[in-house]
Input
Amino acid sequence: MDQKPDQITQSESAVANPVYAGFWIRLGASTIDSILFLVLIIPLLIGIYGIDYLLDLVRIVEDLNRALQLWEKTGNPPMNLILSAKTEGGVWEFLITWVMPAVVIIVFWIYRSATPGKMMVRVKIADAKTGHEPSTGQVIWRYFGYFVSIIPFMLGILWVAFDKRKQGWHDKLAGTIVVKT
Output
């Protein structure tokens, strides 16, 4: 069937006129992804390190809470408490809590242009110039761009709420946008 030049398909229209996904829907997607990762990661860590691993996490949270309370009272950060609030998990903890999530997220972005959370809220990542699927290089840059976005008080993440194209710093670095599907 021939298509008239003035007729465009729904997918062509979505590329030409994207509906950007804003801060709250992206926060929802991120929350879903975080819960899914916890359901996967916690049993793995308990299986490797035992139930004491969870007790260590509780201790760490308590230590950080005490450190914040002291900081509020004195105006000085209690570095001894802050620096002691760490686990001794080792290589497996690093692989399970840092490497595995990075690989899973990047693979989802490459093959689906979205994580499970993004799919559930019906948004996806797209190339900012073309509106099509991002390249592998873009999604890798985007992932590592999160660290740049998070370090200065999450400012690069919050930027999504104020940017006209709803891009966080990680999106700007990678040349991506997040659009509703």
Remarks:
- The first strand starts at residue 123 and ends at 127.
